[in-house]
Amino acid sequence: MNNNLQIYNTLSRTKEKFEPIVPPHVGMYVCGPTVYGDAHLGHARPAITFDVVFRYLMHIGYKVRYVRNITDVGHLENDADEGEDKIVKKARLESLEPMEVVKLFTDRYHKNMDQLNVLHPSIEPTASGHIIEQIELIKSILNNGYAYEADGSVYFDVEKYNKDYQYGKLSGRKTEDLLENTRILAGQDEKKNSYDFALWKKTDPKHIMQWPSPWSDGYPGWHLECSAMGAKYLGEKFDIHGGGMDLLFPHHESEIAQSNASRGHDPVKYWMHNNMITIGGQKMGKSLNNFITLDEFFSGNQELLTRAYSPMTIRFFILQAHYRSTLDFSNEALQAAEKGMHKLFNTIEIIDKLVPTEKSTIDVRQFESRLYEAMNDDFNTPITIAYLFDLSRLINQVNDGKEKLTKEDISFVKELFAVFIFKVLGLKNESGKNSDLLIDQLMNTILVIRNDAKLNKDWATADRIREDLSKLKINIKDTKDGSEWSFE
RNA sequence: GGUACCGUGGCCGAGUGGCUAGGCGGUGGUCUGCAAAACCAUAUACGGCGGUUCGAAUCCGUUCGGUACCUCCA
């Protein structure tokens, strides 16, 4: 097992050596989507980031249980509707049952994740399926004296908690500052302090989504589901908790508080946060309404897009930046990523055609340790990719006869590429070599005719075939070894 | 206002006290009926001002600019 992995822990703000609590097992929990709308580019980032974490941990020999939740109870929405559940609001707008909305967008999310070649998590629990666990958690927080009831609702007592623990240690906040800055919300007068947050919220009978509890008919608070489900499936303390940076406060901060208040210790060893994707330097997000959905990227149907981009282009684009940096979207950047990725896939095909020699003139073995070092350094995928490009150039030089490789080195390189590109980075070749035998033979016939035309210097016919096929998105390339075709 | 973070060549993006990041684009080649693709080779950099140092884009201070969180948000 590769034992040099360093992970940047938000809690300590430093890179730490990764040592799982119960090796070789690793428990990882990542905040999934709230399913009330289509997934956009921002959702792709944590999904892909932690997919690579998942893949790499398994690759270096860990047994990983990866839990990614679906938030289907919704969070309070603090606009004019004053405390209305997000999913309920969407349901009213579209005259659907809340669970109909949940099903629709969960399915669409899954489809997008499959397109992005994101592995399925080991467990994908829903908040609505764990109301009992959340109620139990509230009970224990109440029993320990860190919460209080007010008119059927239950609130977390941050001031009390802060005497025994430290509220704000993850996000670097102080409760005094929070006092001055917390926005005035509905139900504020029930709370002892403005920064107290709801564990259980009483609701009126009109509210569609509600559950009975010892305190009132209502629904669980904003941050409870992850605390409850993380503990249920990964234990009271587990290794990695991931999510977007925007969840750092108050969401993850409150998870830590809930865990301490109920169980007396922190829930997580390593906190990982991916940075945001920006558009024109600004965060892409629901609230700013400046997001582009994944389906829009795949179809090109959006005014900001000059054309469509494939799922793998999106994936490669995201992996070309480190997960803790912001990543700025632009058509230009996306097209650059696409070309670069094709170059890599092209190299893989070239490896198969290399002619081995007795001796190697270049050292390709050193790339193995370099690639692992890059990944071990807090999952530095941009460096990993840079090394793959270096390797690609060397392979092309071999192909050009400028350098030489032995048979053993060639298969070594081939394996290295396969491991990192397909297994670790999770990319797949989308180029449409059609496996349909009929199409293959039809194309063969066409190319033979065109080649005859070329031999007769009948350029008009040759060009016409090429142009007409290009309208069908079939591209012809003339090479030394004859003509090749590819779809799309 | 509080708390973090960032400012790198035309674009996107790594990294680091002295040694080529990488990709795209540009330029020059190879190949080619043409085209496209592919390949090879290249140039352009670290916001401003001070300081530490033999040496800083990298550390410190300061200043300007930008972003995020503090409210649901990946």
Structure notes:
The protein has three domains: 6-274, HUPs (Rossmann fold, 3-Layer(aba) Sandwich); 278-424, Isoleucyl-tRNA Synthetase, Domain 1 (Orthogonal Bundle), CATH 1.10.730; 437-487, no CATH class. The chain has helices at residues 41-59, 86-94, 98-115, 131-143, 158-164, 175-181, 224-234, 248-263, 294-299, 311-319, 331-353, 366-376, 381-399, 407-424, 437-455, 459-471, and strands at residues 6-9, 14-17, 25-30, 63-68, 76-77, 84-85, 147-150, 153-156, 198-202, 218-220, 238-244, 268-274, 277-279, 282-283, 327-329, 474-479, 482-487. Helix 4 packs across helix 8 (248-263) and helix 11 packs across helix 13. Strands 4-3-11-12 form a four-stranded parallel β-sheet, with helices on both faces. Strands 7-8-9-10 form a four-stranded antiparallel β-sheet, covered by helices on one side. It is of the alpha/beta class and 488 residues long. The relative contact order is 0.11. It starts with 5 loop residues before the first strand and ends with a strand. The chain has 16 helices and 17 strands. It is elongated and about 90 Å long. The structure holds one RNA strand of 74 nucleotides.
